[in-house]
Design brief:
The protein has 15 helices and five strands. By secondary structure, the protein is of the alpha/beta class.
Length: 265
Amino acid sequence: MFMELLLSGQVEEYLDRAALGDRPCVFVHIPKTAGTSLRTEIAAALQPDVNIVVDYEDETRSFHERMDGAVDVFLARNAVDPIRFASGHVQARHVQRIRQQMPRALFVTFLRDPVARVISDYRYQRSPRHPVYADFVKRVPSLDAYLELRSEQNKMAQHLVPPGVLIGGDPQECVDTMMRGFDFIGVQEMYPISFRTLMTLIGHPSWPKVQENVNRENEEERNVSPEVAKRIRAVNELDCALYDHVFPRLAAVRDRLSSALNARA
């Protein structure tokens, strides 16, 4: 909720006001935004921690029903034995529930350029590293088919913007809602300084060391034509609005932020 301070250049005030202290931290992990590596390093610093995950082998319920159940289990456990750090591919409706039980928590997330994120997510879901990749390949035979899936469009917004706002489809309202709801928003394209900022906020200033869940297969698939990139942006308008609000403004304060982090290290 303090993110506007940082993006407007009030770096020192931001670092003071957004510091974690004795509060818990909740990381909303948007797929393919370097979140697996990030959660590993935060979890090492903040214990006890919980990673909210679904059982991919359970075919009796939809993914969303399984995630709803995983959040139920987490909230019940946290009510009895409070955690310091929680993470997961939770969506905005889950964030609302978690915030009700953990109103003091620091809510954080990472964004990624929408074109790069979509291509990376598509490649990952087709790779053996994804538990149900064979079914995905059968259902979604091509990138063209993938881009038509409504469930895969504006995925960053699905995780960060409540359904009531998301369904309205107003880019500025989505941006405003995200900015009010998150205390830190990093960017994968600026991962080192984003990582350092977050680790400074939680009281463990450091540089990134871990690199997990990286798909290096078929590297040529990363390169898409300008026409495909334009199509990806067109069907992910809300994600583009979120990213375009944060990335250039964070880049503009990079040097000032770096100096402040160096002074506090």
